[in-house]
Protein backbone atom coordinates (compact mmCIF):
# COMPACT_ATOMS: atom_id res chain seq x y z
CA UNK A 1 0.00 0.00 0.00
CA UNK A 2 1.14 3.48 -0.77
CA UNK A 3 0.48 6.73 1.05
CA UNK A 4 -1.50 5.44 3.99
CA UNK A 5 -3.31 7.74 6.38
CA UNK A 6 -3.97 6.26 9.82
CA UNK A 7 -6.77 7.42 12.07
CA UNK A 8 -6.18 6.51 15.71
CA UNK A 9 -8.77 6.38 18.46
CA UNK A 10 -8.99 5.00 21.96
CA UNK A 11 -10.75 5.14 25.25
CA UNK A 12 -8.95 5.86 28.52
CA UNK A 13 -7.73 2.26 28.89
CA UNK A 14 -6.13 2.36 25.45
CA UNK A 15 -4.79 5.91 25.59
CA UNK A 16 -1.16 5.12 26.52
CA UNK A 17 -0.81 2.37 23.91
CA UNK A 18 -2.45 4.56 21.25
CA UNK A 19 0.04 7.35 21.92
CA UNK A 20 3.02 4.99 21.70
CA UNK A 21 1.72 3.43 18.49
CA UNK A 22 1.28 6.85 16.87
CA UNK A 23 4.95 7.61 17.54
CA UNK A 24 6.03 4.14 16.36
CA UNK A 25 4.19 4.52 13.06
CA UNK A 26 5.67 7.93 12.30
CA UNK A 27 9.20 6.71 13.06
CA UNK A 28 9.06 3.22 11.51
CA UNK A 29 6.56 2.86 8.66
CA UNK A 30 7.64 4.69 5.53
CA UNK A 31 4.38 4.71 3.57
CA UNK A 32 2.35 6.40 6.33
CA UNK A 33 1.90 9.96 5.16
CA UNK A 34 -0.41 11.17 7.91
CA UNK A 35 -1.48 10.22 11.40
CA UNK A 36 -4.79 11.62 12.58
CA UNK A 37 -5.69 11.47 16.26
CA UNK A 38 -9.39 10.92 16.83
CA UNK A 39 -8.97 10.99 20.63
CA UNK A 40 -9.20 10.49 23.47
CA UNK A 41 -6.61 12.87 24.86
CA UNK A 42 -5.89 11.50 28.34
CA UNK A 43 -6.36 8.49 30.58
CA UNK A 44 -9.41 10.03 32.25
CA UNK A 45 -12.51 7.83 31.89
CA UNK A 46 -14.42 8.16 28.62
CA UNK A 47 -16.81 5.94 26.64
CA UNK A 48 -15.24 4.02 23.75
CA UNK A 49 -18.31 4.26 21.43
CA UNK A 50 -17.71 8.01 21.20
CA UNK A 51 -14.21 7.47 19.81
CA UNK A 52 -15.17 4.60 17.52
CA UNK A 53 -17.77 6.97 16.05
CA UNK A 54 -15.25 9.77 15.65
CA UNK A 55 -12.74 7.52 13.89
CA UNK A 56 -15.47 6.10 11.63
CA UNK A 57 -16.54 9.62 10.71
CA UNK A 58 -12.97 10.64 9.83
CA UNK A 59 -12.48 7.43 7.83
CA UNK A 60 -15.58 8.13 5.76
CA UNK A 61 -13.93 11.03 3.98
CA UNK A 62 -12.68 10.27 0.52
CA UNK A 63 -9.00 9.55 1.07
CA UNK A 64 -8.47 6.18 -0.69
CA UNK A 65 -5.93 4.69 1.72
CA UNK A 66 -7.26 5.63 5.13
CA UNK A 67 -7.19 2.98 7.86
CA UNK A 68 -8.31 2.99 11.49
CA UNK A 69 -6.44 1.89 14.60
CA UNK A 70 -8.61 1.56 17.70
CA UNK A 71 -7.50 0.67 21.22
CA UNK A 72 -9.43 -0.06 24.40
CA UNK A 73 -8.82 -2.41 27.31
CA UNK A 74 -9.63 -5.58 25.38
CA UNK A 75 -10.16 -4.24 21.87
CA UNK A 76 -13.57 -5.89 21.83
CA UNK A 77 -15.97 -3.07 22.69
CA UNK A 78 -14.39 -0.39 20.52
CA UNK A 79 -14.27 -2.81 17.58
CA UNK A 80 -17.93 -3.76 17.99
CA UNK A 81 -18.86 -0.07 18.09
CA UNK A 82 -16.82 0.67 14.96
CA UNK A 83 -18.46 -2.15 13.04
CA UNK A 84 -21.85 -0.44 13.42
CA UNK A 85 -20.78 1.85 10.56
CA UNK A 86 -21.31 0.51 7.03
CA UNK A 87 -17.91 1.55 5.70
CA UNK A 88 -15.91 0.02 8.57
CA UNK A 89 -14.56 -3.53 8.62
CA UNK A 90 -12.81 -3.64 11.99
CA UNK A 91 -11.00 -6.75 13.16
CA UNK A 92 -9.79 -7.47 16.66
CA UNK A 93 -6.23 -8.68 16.17
CA UNK A 94 -4.34 -10.40 18.95
CA UNK A 95 -1.33 -11.60 16.95
CA UNK A 96 0.34 -11.13 13.58
CA UNK A 97 -1.53 -14.05 12.00
CA UNK A 98 -4.94 -12.55 12.81
CA UNK A 99 -3.72 -9.18 11.46
CA UNK A 100 -2.55 -10.80 8.23
CA UNK A 101 -5.81 -12.70 7.73
CA UNK A 102 -7.89 -9.62 8.59
CA UNK A 103 -6.37 -7.84 5.60
CA UNK A 104 -5.69 -10.75 3.24
CA UNK A 105 -9.06 -12.51 3.50
CA UNK A 106 -11.43 -9.90 4.95
CA UNK A 107 -10.10 -6.62 3.57
CA UNK A 108 -10.33 -5.06 7.04
CA UNK A 109 -9.78 -1.32 6.99
CA UNK A 110 -9.60 -0.95 10.76
CA UNK A 111 -7.84 -2.85 13.51
CA UNK A 112 -8.71 -2.99 17.19
CA UNK A 113 -6.21 -3.83 19.89
CA UNK A 114 -6.51 -4.55 23.60
CA UNK A 115 -4.09 -2.63 25.78
CA UNK A 116 -4.62 -5.01 28.71
CA UNK A 117 -3.85 -8.06 26.57
CA UNK A 118 -1.23 -6.81 24.10
CA UNK A 119 2.03 -5.15 25.05
CA UNK A 120 3.63 -2.38 23.00
CA UNK A 121 6.12 -4.60 21.15
CA UNK A 122 3.40 -7.06 20.15
CA UNK A 123 1.08 -4.24 19.11
CA UNK A 124 3.80 -2.79 16.87
CA UNK A 125 4.30 -6.11 15.10
CA UNK A 126 0.55 -6.65 14.74
CA UNK A 127 0.01 -3.17 13.29
CA UNK A 128 3.01 -3.47 10.97
CA UNK A 129 1.72 -6.80 9.62
CA UNK A 130 -1.75 -5.34 9.16
CA UNK A 131 -0.41 -2.40 7.16
CA UNK A 132 1.94 -4.49 5.02
CA UNK A 133 -0.67 -7.07 3.97
CA UNK A 134 -2.75 -6.64 0.82
CA UNK A 135 -6.27 -7.98 0.22
CA UNK A 136 -6.23 -11.07 -1.99
CA UNK A 137 -9.67 -10.51 -3.52
CA UNK A 138 -11.01 -13.41 -5.58
CA UNK A 139 -13.04 -15.88 -3.53
CA UNK A 140 -12.67 -13.61 -0.53
CA UNK A 141 -14.40 -10.74 -2.32
CA UNK A 142 -17.39 -13.01 -2.93
CA UNK A 143 -17.68 -13.57 0.82
CA UNK A 144 -17.43 -9.87 1.57
CA UNK A 145 -20.19 -9.23 -0.95
CA UNK A 146 -22.36 -11.76 0.93
CA UNK A 147 -21.65 -9.99 4.21
CA UNK A 148 -22.66 -6.66 2.69
CA UNK A 149 -25.84 -8.26 1.32
CA UNK A 150 -26.80 -9.40 4.83
CA UNK A 151 -27.52 -5.80 5.78
CA UNK A 152 -30.22 -5.53 3.14
CA UNK A 153 -31.69 -8.89 4.12
CA UNK A 154 -31.96 -7.87 7.75
CA UNK A 155 -33.78 -4.67 6.82
CA UNK A 156 -36.63 -6.68 5.26
SSE layout:
Elements: E1 4-10, H1 15-28, E2 32-37, H2 48-59, E3 66-72, H3 76-82, E4 90-92, H4 96-104, E5 110-114, H5 120-132, H6 139-155
Parallel strand pairs: 1-2, 1-3, 3-5, 4-5
Task: Describe the 3D structure.
Helix 1 links the parallel strand 1 and strand 2 (32-37). The chain is α/β, with parallel strands linked by helices and 156 residues long. It has helices at residues 15-28, 48-59, 76-82, 96-104, 120-132, 139-155; strands at 4-10, 32-37, 66-72, 90-92, 110-114. The N and C termini lie far apart (38 Å). It has one domain: Sugar-phosphate isomerase, RpiB/LacA/LacB (Ribose 5-phosphate Isomerase B, Chain: A, 3-Layer(aba) Sandwich), CATH 3.40.1400.10. Helix 1 crosses helix 5 (120-132), helix 2 (48-59) crosses helix 3 and helix 4 packs parallel to helix 5. 46% of the residues lie in helices and 18% in strands. The chain has a five-stranded parallel sheet with strand order 2-1-3-5-4, sandwiched between helices.
CA radius of gyration is 15 Å
Q: In the CATH classification, which architecture applies? A: 3-Layer(aba) Sandwich
* Total tally of structural domains: 1
The main sheet comes to: 5 strands, parallel
In terms of per-residue confidence, which ranges show pLDDT below 50 for 5 or more consecutive residues?
Answer: none
Termini separation comes to 38 Å
CATH class reads: Alpha Beta
Sheet with most strands: strand arrangement:
2-1-3-5-4
Tell me the CATH superfamily: Sugar-phosphate isomerase, RpiB/LacA/LacB
Q: How many strands?
A: 5
- Roughly what is the average pLDDT, rounded to an integer? 92
Structural class by helix and strand composition: alpha/beta
CATH topology: Ribose 5-phosphate Isomerase B, Chain: A
Following the backbone from N to C, one meets helices and strands in this order, namely: EHEHEHEHEHH
Quaternary arrangement of the chains shown?
A: single chain
State which percent range the strand residues make up.
15-25%
Residues in helix, %: 40-55%
Shape: globular
Count of DSSP H/I helices:
6
Amino acid sequence: MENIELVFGSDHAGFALKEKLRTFVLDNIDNVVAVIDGGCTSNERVDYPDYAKKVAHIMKTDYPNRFGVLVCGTGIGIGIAANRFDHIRCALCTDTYSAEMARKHNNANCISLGSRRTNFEEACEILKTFLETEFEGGRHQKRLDKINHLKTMLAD
